[in-house]
C-alpha cells in the first residue's frame, strides 16, 4: 500500500488491508488533522481492500466529520463500488460523481 499527497488530496494505491491498516490510519488521521475543507481520497490506484481497510476509511470519515471536514472518495474501482453498495456505505460516504448502482455488473 502507498499513499501520496497532502492534507487536501491523497492517492491511495496497492492493497488497503489488515497489513497496511495501521500505516494508512496514521497518514489519513494526519491529513485530516492538518488540513481544512474536503479531503479527497483518490482510489484509482487501489487494487483491493478488505473489511479492515474499509474500517480505516470509515474511521477517517468519522474523524473528518468531527473536525468539520468531509472525506470524499474519487475514482472508486468498480469492485469496491459493489462492496460499498452491498454494505450500504455508499449512502453515508461522499463519493465524487456518485455510484451508478444500476450500471454495476452483477456478481
Automatic annotation (TrEMBL):
Residues 1-107 form the STAS domain. Belongs to the anti-sigma-factor antagonist family. This is Anti-sigma factor antagonist. It comes from Streptomyces marokkonensis. The lineage of its organism: Bacteria, Bacillati, Actinomycetota, Actinomycetes, Kitasatosporales.
Amino acid at each position: 500500500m502507498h499513499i501520496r499527497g497532502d492534507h487536501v488530496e491523497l492517492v491511495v494505491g496497492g492493497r488497503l488491508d489488515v497489513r497496511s491498516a495501521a500505516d494508512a490510519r496514521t497518514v489519513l488521521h494526519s491529513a485530516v488533522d492538518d488540513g481544512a475543507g474536503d479531503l479527497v481520497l483518490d482510489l484509482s490506484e487501489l487494487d483491493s481492500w478488505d473489511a479492515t481497510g474499509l474500517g480505516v476509511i470509515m474511521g477517517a470519515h468519522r474523524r473528518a466529520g468531527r473536525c468539520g471536514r468531509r472525506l470524499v472518495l474519487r475514482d472508486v474501482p468498480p469492485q469496491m463500488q459493489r462492496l460499498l453498495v452491498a454494505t450500504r456505505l455508499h449512502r453515508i460516504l461522499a463519493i465524487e460523481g456518485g455510484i451508478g448502482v444500476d450500471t454495476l455488473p452483477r456478481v
